[in-house]
Amino acid sequence: MENLIRKPLGLATVYIEYAGGSMEDKESLSIMLFPLIRKKHLQKKILEILPVYKTDTEMTPIPKRALSRYVFHKFLFLIPIIGALVWFFRPWGYFSLLLVPLAIFWAYMQYRDAGWSIEGDLLLLSSRFFSKQTLIMQRSRIQSITYKKVGFRIEKN
C-alpha cells in the first residue's frame, strides 16, 4: 500500500490477508508484514519470507479509453456537491469549482495506477482510491470471481 506521502519517498506498507479463520475474528484476517519498507528492497524481503510470490514482472496498464470513465465518475459525484455549494453559498460557493481540477487529477492518478499482470500462477492487480494498493495472489487460491461489464456497444452498419 502506498499513500500520497509514501510514494514520492519510495516507501510502502505490506499486509498479508488470508481467508482462513472465523468471521468473528476480524483482526486475524490481515497482518502487517512490513510497516514501512523501501520499494527497492521489497522484492528481496518478500522472497525471503514467501518464495512463491516472485513478483518482478511489469504491470499491464489499463486501456487509454478507461480514462474518460474515471473522469466521468468523478464528475457524477461532484456535480450535485458543486451545485449545492454554488446555490446555497453564493458568491463564495463558486470557489467549489476549484474542485474540478482536483477531481481530474484524482481520476488521472487512479487511472495511472490501475493495472494487472499474470505471470505463472500469480495474479497481480493494482488500483488506487486514495492509497495505491497492489494485490498479489496465487490463481489457484482464488475462491470467487465476479465479472461485470458496464456500458453498451453501438455497432455501425
Mean pLDDT: 80
Overall radius of gyration: 20 Å
End-to-end separation: 47 Å
Poorly predicted regions: none
Helix/strand class: alpha+beta
What is the H-and-E element order? HEEHEHHEEE
Number of E-type strands: 6
Tally of helical runs: 4
Strand order in space, largest sheet = 3-4-5-6
Q: Which word captures the global form? A: elongated
| Helical percentage | 25-40%
Major sheet summary line: 4 strands, antiparallel
Strand content bin: 15-25%
What does the model show?
With 157 residues, the chain is α+β, with helices and mostly antiparallel strands. Helix content is 34%, strand content 24%. It is built from four helices and six strands, in the order H-E-E-H-E-H-H-E-E-E. The strands form two sheets. The chain has a four-stranded antiparallel sheet with strand order 3-4-5-6. A two-stranded antiparallel ribbon has the order 1-2. Helix 3 (66-88) packs antiparallel against helix 4 (99-113). The model has no long low-confidence stretch (mean pLDDT 80).
